Amino acid sequence: MAIHLHGVSGGRLLLALVLNVVIAVAQIVGGIISGSLALLSDALHNFSDVSALAISYIAQKISSKRATRFGTFGYKRAEIIAALFNSSVLAGIGLYLIYESVIRFYNPQPVVSSLVMALGALGVVVNGGSIWLLEAEAEGSMNIRAAYLHLLGDTLTSVAVVAGGAAIHLWQIYWADPLISILIALYLIFASVSLIRESTAILMEFAPKGVDIGEIAEEVSKIPDIENIHRIHLWRLGDREIFLQAHLDFSRNLTLKETTRRIEEVEKMLKERFGITGVVLQPEYMRDDEKSLIKGES
Q: Could you give all domains of the chain from N- to C-terminal order, each with its CATH number?
């Protein structure tokens, strides 16, 4: 399992935040003047970006704090909580836009198409620039990926707003405005679902995808003097760190020095083979306890 360790630039995140404040204010004013629901939807989405980027920036700063006696794992989960919040807000905005769009279908309103196209184009440029700032770093951080998805969605929705404005300008198709809003909303919901699932899985301390517990047990048993590994707990602390806690049965009564050497072999193998960086093992010999891989598993 590949573990990405890209650093995330707080300066880039902050610049993307400033750019989105500018475009959100411009689109709200333009949306009110033009009467375009699609443009207001895009503006609302941009404001969600402002919130997402601000939360991501703060979470990034918090997560970089060192561990303490109170927070022995540090503050890595701050970014995961931010990712869950941002993606949930994104899904909520999508549902709201669908509701507003349905109402507009039954009550179509005239739209100043030239203003819609101009501000939509501005959104494409500004959000495209923000994406460029964060693209290289989105893979290495779920928190940044949540913000990146907001920005990517905004760029695509701005393109749709321009297309809708053009349709209204050329053919007076006013229903194009709510239709585009619905398409924007569906994209927002779709983009947020996978991130909600992944961040929830981390907070619930589920085993990470791509790491097979059965394969771990098989590889550990190949190390000399180890009879089995059981009562395994496997979880992710954040985007990158994978932790494992387990009991380790030895086939003979080793000295403490020999036991330590075997445990070091297990730790090295787990890191190289599975990307597991935090390992806590309880060595045992001839202990009569439950030997299943997962406690309580039949």
A: 10-203 (1.20.1510.10), 213-284 (3.30.70.1350)
